[in-house]
Amino acid sequence: MDRFVEITEKIRAFTQASVKKSRYEHSVRVAEMCARICRFYRLDSEKGYLAGVGHDMCKDFPVEKMIELAKKDGNPITDFEMKKPSLLHGRAAAVMMKEEFGISDEEILEAVAYHTSGKSGMCDLTKALFVADKIEPCRPQATPKYIEQKFSLSFDGMVYSVLKENYNYLTKKGYEVFPGTEGLLEEYKVEGVE
Ligand SMILES: [Fe+2]
Ligand SMILES: [Fe+2]
């Protein structure tokens, strides 16, 4: 038990020192929501809390630093990411967790790296963090009733409904969505879930 207590505290403290106050508070809410999702759907809630509390720890870094870190994960920086380098804050955080904090758990690293967009073939922890980031209780739509409704779904249903809502929100606002998002909607489609 409590395999991650010390490292979680280090990541929490680093996050608190590295991002603005409102973002730190968001990080704690995401950690709590992610742990709640993990408990409810029988995933590892300690890993969920850790991934949640650190997921945005690089988001207030200078863009050059984010790019430099993200490059170290061995994947190319896509044109889409280069146009909007702040999208690299997840990949940057995963690199820091691995290289500077010694975290080797692949699920935690994947969850943090892909929390903004999700990923084809993503693990359950990545799904849980993606959802937690979007439905933490200070998001505008996230009333207690809304959150309760999400928890009334199966895990896959919850994931699909949040992927879909996120896609609808971004396209309605006129934002470009990650290439591959339509593919994710196909991949994770659950019949009967809006
Ligand atoms: Fe983020
Ligand atoms: Fe976030």
In short, what is this structure?
The chain is an all-alpha fold and 194 residues long. The chain has 11 helices and no strands. The termini are far apart.
Structural features, described:
The structure is a single chain. This protein is an all-alpha fold and 194 residues long. It is 63% helix and 0% strand. It is globular and about 45 Å long. The site of one fe (ii) ion has 7 residues, from helix 6.
Topology:
Elements: H1 5-18, H2 21-40, H3 45-54, H4 63-71, H5 79-83, H6 89-99, H7 106-113, H8 124-135, H9 144-151, H10 155-172, H11 181-187
Helix pairs in contact: 1-3, 2-3, 2-8, 3-7, 3-8, 4-6, 6-7, 7-8, 8-10, 10-11
Bound molecules: fe (ii) ion (2 copies).
**Low-confidence segments, ≥5 residues, pLDDT <50?**
none
Radius of gyration: 16 Å
Mean pLDDT across the residues is: 96
Compute the separation of the termini in Å: 37 Å
Quaternary status: single chain
SSE pattern: HHHHHHHHHHH
Helix tally? 11
Features:
194 residues, mainly alpha, 11 helices, globular, binds fe (ii) ion
